[in-house]
Design goal:
The structure is a single chain. This protein has about 220 residues and is α/β, with parallel strands linked by helices. The protein has two domains: about 120 residues, Response regulator (Rossmann fold), CATH 3.40.50.2300; about 90 residues, Arc Repressor Mutant, subunit A (Orthogonal Bundle). It is about 40% helix and about 20% strand.
Amino acid sequence: MKVLIVEDEPAIAGALRRGLEGEGMAVDVMADGVDGLWAATENQYDAIVLDLMLPGISGRDVLVGLRERGVWTPVLVLTAREGNEVEIGVFDRGADDFLAKPFSFDILLARLRALVRRGAPERPVVLSIGDLRLEPARRRVDRGGSEITLTPREYGVLELLMRRGGDVVTKSEILNNVWDSAFEGDPNVVEVYISYLRRKVDTPFGRRSITTVRGMGYRVVAED
């Protein structure tokens, strides 16, 4: 197993290298975003451990750069900042997992192994259903070439629906994936966001692509 660590704090990078090498892994370490992006695109790795706060270019930009280049190596993001907005931001840009500092090495090791077991199936650069297009790496949505501005939560709901390729997605699945499994608010918030999306994605273009399947959930279709 070969791992790339992109981390500018020498103590953390050194500890990770020693720990992973002690587990029999081959490890490369890069101390800034520019070198990290170069290494990840020029070499084959089973997983990447990526800090968000990097000199050169940020970890977020490294993520976007990797996914735009079609590099789908699993990425575990490290950050000193916590919160839903941070997590949503890194997942939107193509991260596979997220770990806040300080962290347990054993937890990091377990998550890395889980990422490698899942592998890195190629993900589409652009999701499209009819004339509706979503670019995950750039977090850009357009319809017939006209860009649509969405909030992070609206984007998360639409991306989940489009990744299902027209299959029905239940309300609980949307809550678990876009909010979280511990959400204790009103589950009807999903209906509210579906309504928001329709106003932005469908109504201005004379479409009815975001549909309700009564008693089951929601889906995106090419035509009504």
